[in-house]
Structures are given as structure tokens and as C-alpha cells.
């Protein structure tokens, strides 16, 4: 019985390691900025952001704060 529990714990640990590694690989592959996520479509309803300086309007998929810098991020998919 103890062997079964040990094997189950090893399996769960291996799955967690694999998921963390895949998450890291995905963020590197898609150049997702590192930092604290302060906005995201999945977190909140979403607001339209505007820049009068650059005459831009849009709803980014994610906004990340890295240090004092705020970085909007838009996910793009290909068909």
C-alpha cells in the first residue's frame, strides 16, 4: 500500500513538472512579457484603452506591469 501511495505522489510530481515546463516553453515561444498581470480578458470584462498621443484605441488580451513599465499584449493566432 505504501508503494502505491509513493508511486502516485511521484506521478503527480512528474505531471506538475511537465505542466510548469510546458507553460514556460509557451511563454518563451510566444514572447509573452514577464511581470505582474494587471489586466486580462479572462480576469475581467475588459475596457477599451486609448492613447491620444498615438491615436490608438483597443482592448488588449493582457496588460503586464514589468517594473514601472506597462506592456499591453495581444495574442495572435494563425489559421
Give an account of the 3D structure:
- The protein has 79 residues and is of the alpha+beta class.
- The protein has two domains: 1-31; 34-74, no CATH class.
- The chain has one helix spanning 2-29; strands at residues 36-40, 49-51, 56-58, 62-66, 69-73.
- β4 and β5 form a beta hairpin.
- 0% of the residues are buried.
- It comes from mine drainage metagenome.
- This is CRISPR-associated Cas4 family protein.
Give keywords.
79 residues, CRISPR-associated Cas4 family protein, 35% helix, single chain, two-stranded antiparallel ribbon, 5 strands, alpha+beta, 27% strand
| Count of helix runs | 1
Class from helix and strand fractions: alpha+beta
- Overall pLDDT level: 81
Main beta-sheet strand count, sense and barrel state: 3 strands, antiparallel
- Parts with pLDDT < 50 across at least 5 consecutive residues: none
Concise summary:
With 79 residues, the chain is an alpha+beta fold.
Helices, strands, pairings?
Elements: H1 2-29, E1 36-40, E2 49-51, E3 56-58, E4 62-66, E5 69-73
Amino acid at each position: 500500500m505504501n508503494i502505491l501511495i509513493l508511486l502516485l505522489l511521484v506521478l503527480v510530481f512528474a505531471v506538475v513538472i511537465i505542466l510548469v515546463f510546458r507553460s514556460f516553453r509557451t511563454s518563451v515561444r510566444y514572447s509573452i512579457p514577464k511581470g505582474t498581470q494587471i489586466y486580462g480578458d479572462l480576469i475581467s470584462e475588459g475596457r477599451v484603452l486609448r492613447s491620444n498621443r498615438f491615436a490608438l484605441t483597443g482592448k488588449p488580451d493582457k496588460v503586464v506591469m514589468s517594473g514601472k513599465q506597462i506592456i499591453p499584449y495581444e495574442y495572435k493566432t494563425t489559421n
